[in-house]
Hints:
By secondary structure, the chain is an all-alpha fold. Helices cover 72% and strands 2% of the residues.
Amino acid sequence: MASARGAALWIVAAVGYLALEAVAAASFSPSYSYARNYISDLGVPSGSLVRGQVVDSSRADLMHAAFYLQGALFFLGGLLLTGIPDNRRARIFLGTVGANAVGNIVIGTVPTGKVHVAGALLAIVGGNAAVLLGSEAIGVLAGRQWYRGVSKCIAALGLSCLIMLMVNSATTKTNLLPDGIWERGSVYSIIAWQLLTAIWLLTFWRHRLG
């Protein structure tokens, strides 16, 4: 069943991304902080300056792979979950998922600089927009009020975290929470939603077929 395969791909993407990120963080020197460091710090070449320190990121390739994995499987899973998009809502949803995929490929390929920042914005905005739209675009979930409400809350959290990250960057000071927490809030919202959606769908189909 295509939708079950799509859900499985989303679980593989989410778990794989978090695992690769954790391994890359464990090998980062000096010590990596999930609260203070940017996610992309894990992907910079060894010898780069990060927060005024020369870093050893010997497993940066793993972080690049994490971005590629999440982007590709999030998009492929979305295709399997919606099928051939026969309505405007599904097409827009796939467009946002595609934007997230392109953004992830960019940030995995270009570890620093303006192009990297543009890719990060595309991935984060596209992914959280997909969270917002997914509750109406994925067939068996459409119209479920509880799921729509949860999805809207997750998307609002993700986009709010992005706004706070941008405020921190613009003011060059910490507002309420460090940059790393705001950035992870804007990225992990996507991961959390795809896990929630995938697990619910697999449970739904299991009960339906069982």
